[in-house]
């Protein structure tokens, strides 16, 4: 009897593992990154009014997962099919989530560097960006935040915030 129970337990445990693996695969499929051409990548996104809405909180978590899966250092909501003003960035201190971000200052000093985009697989090109910027946004708790960024961090922010305005790197390739 004990032996039978042991077998049943083993089957249940492996069933549970299989379900978990299936669920994580389903999640991956659901978070498919949208590639160009697609209208949603060209639309100006909507401001998020209720930051604390569980759907928004979940979207942010989903985007962090999708960003890891795509091996990108940044992701904007339209890239997973949501026309909302939300970006995630994985730069140095772990994932940063910004809602309704706006760039309030662009330095005159610019730099060119090669960029790629999860929505433009295989396309890379030189893009000129301001070296320093200032950003206003909200965090996931709804707090208003503002900060300065420079170099690569400023570049990633400009790239992702461009997505919120329907702008892609192919619009900005120089040469
Ligand atoms: Zn991009």
Identify the notable features of this structure and list them briefly.
about 180 residues, alpha+beta, Peptide Deformylase, 2 domains, 5-stranded antiparallel β-sheet, two-stranded antiparallel ribbon, 3 helices, 7 strands, globular, binds zinc ion
Describe this structure in words.
The protein is built from three helices and seven strands, in the order ααβββββββα. With 175 residues, the protein is α+β, with helices and mostly antiparallel strands. The longest helix has 29 residues, at 2-30. The strands form two sheets. It has a five-stranded antiparallel β-sheet with strand order 1-2-3-6-7. The chain has a two-stranded antiparallel ribbon with strand order 4-5. The radius of gyration is 20 Å and the shape is globular. The mean pLDDT is 89. Helices cover 34% and strands 26% of the residues. The chain has two domains: 1-32; 71-175, Peptide Deformylase (Alpha-Beta Complex). Bound molecules: zinc ion (ZN).
Please render the helix and strand layout as text:
Layout: H1 2-30, H2 54-70, E1 74-76, E2 86-90, E3 95-106, E4 110-115, E5 125-130, E6 132-138, E7 144-150, H3 151-164
Antiparallel strand pairs: 1-2, 2-3, 3-6, 4-5, 6-7
Bound molecules: zinc ion (ZN).
Number of helices: 3
Task: Please tell me the CATH architecture of the largest domain by its name.
Answer: Alpha-Beta Complex
- How are the strands of the biggest sheet laid out side by side? 1-2-3-6-7
Order of helices and strands: HHEEEEEEEH
